[in-house]
């Protein structure tokens, strides 16, 4: 066991855990923050996306011990215009992917604002986010219900 002090949603959370415990399991199983979802548990679906110092990460691929001292934000601690926009645009059906979609979109908007190029095209748009660019930048977040039109609409509203 190792002692880890995570900082989650503004609160220090000391934990005694095995070193191989993922950040996702630390959040869900040890801290009871079940808003962050486990889909694939191997970095393919984005359901587990949280923010670390404002940067979006797949928490299933992160070891909790690596994130000591970082500011972790989960959907439970988020207060962002995207949340209302997802409701207005019907950006979900079952909701399983939604917390990951929203956390990812918060990180994506910050990346775009900072001029970070898209991982796929390697180009920064530098301007208004088109639906196509949002789809590409959000391509790591899958929605099995196919609520993509609403998801893109919500993000586009907030991006404007
Ligand atoms: Fe982490 Fe699917 S649960 S990417
Ligand atoms: Fe069901 Fe996206 S709303 S998986």
Q: In this structure, how is the largest beta sheet organized?
A: 5 strands, mixed
Low-confidence segments, ≥5 residues, pLDDT <50?
none
Q: What is the approximate shape?
A: globular
CATH-defined fold name of the largest domain:
DNA polymerase, domain 1
Mean of all residue-level pLDDT scores: 95
CATH class of the largest domain: Mainly Alpha
| Class by alpha and beta content | alpha+beta
Number of strands: 5
Strand order of the largest sheet: 2-1-5-3-4
Domain 2Fe-2S ferredoxin-type: 2-78
Keywords: Iron, Metal-binding, Oxidoreductase
Protein name: 2Fe-2S iron-sulfur cluster binding domain-containing protein
InterPro entries: 2Fe-2S-bd, 2Fe-2S-bd_dom_sf, 2Fe-2S_ferredoxin-like_sf, 2Fe-2S_ferredoxin-type, 2Fe2S_fd_BS, Aldehyde_Oxdr_Iron-Sulfur, Beta-grasp_dom_sf
3D structure, described in words:
Keywords: Iron, Metal-binding, Oxidoreductase. This protein has 160 residues and is α+β, with helices and mostly antiparallel strands. The chain has two domains: 76 residues, Beta-grasp domain (Ubiquitin-like (UB roll)), CATH 3.10.20.30; 79 residues, Orthogonal Bundle (DNA polymerase, domain 1), CATH 1.10.150.120. Helices cover 32% and strands 16% of the residues. The chain is built from five helices and five strands, in the order E-E-H-E-E-E-H-H-H-H. The N and C termini lie far apart (47 Å). The model has no long low-confidence stretch (mean pLDDT 95). The site of one FE2/S2 (inorganic) cluster (FES) has 12 residues, from loops. The site of one FE2/S2 (inorganic) cluster has 11 residues, from loops.
């Amino acid at each position: 066991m190792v002692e880890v002090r995570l900082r989650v949603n503004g609160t220090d959370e000391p934990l005694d855990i095995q070193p191989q415990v993922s950040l996702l399991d630390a959040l869900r199983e040890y801290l009871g923050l079940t808003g962050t979802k486990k889909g694939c548990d191997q970095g393919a679906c984005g359901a587990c996306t949280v923010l670390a110092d404002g940067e979006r990460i797949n928490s299933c691929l992160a070891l909790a011990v690596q994130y000591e001292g970082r500011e972790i934000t989960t959907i439970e601690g988020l207060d962002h215009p995207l949340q209302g926009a997802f409701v207005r645009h019907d950006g979900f059906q079952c909701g399983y992917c939604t917390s990951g979609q929203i956390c990812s979109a918060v990180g994506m908007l910050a990346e775009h604002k900072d001029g970070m190029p898209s991982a796929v095209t390697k180009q920064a748009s530098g301007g208004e986010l088109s639906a196509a660019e949002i789809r590409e930048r959000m391509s790591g977040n899958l929605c099995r219900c196919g609520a993509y039109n609403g998801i893109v609409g919500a993000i586009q509203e907030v991006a404007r």
